[in-house]
Amino acid sequence: MTNASNMTNGKLSGISCQNLCAIFPASEDVFSRLFYNTESEQDRVVVLFLVPNYRDDIFLMTKTYSTDAETARKHLEGSLRRMKTDVIDLWQVHTLLTPDDVDRRIENGVLDVIAEAKRSGKVRYVGFTGHQSPYAYERMLDKTGEDFFSTCQLPVNVIDAGVEHSFIQQIMPRLMVRNMGVFAMKTLADGRFFSKKIQEGNEIWNINKPVVPDLLTVEEALGFAWSLPIRVLITGAENSQLIKEKIAMAKRFEKMNKDERNKLVEKVSDLSERGDVEYYKEIES
Question: Which long-range contacts (CB under 8 A, 24 or more apart) does 68-72 make?
Answer without folding.
Answer: 68/105, 68/108, 68/109, 68/110, 69/108, 69/109, 69/110, 69/112, 69/113, 72/109, 72/110, 72/113, 72/114
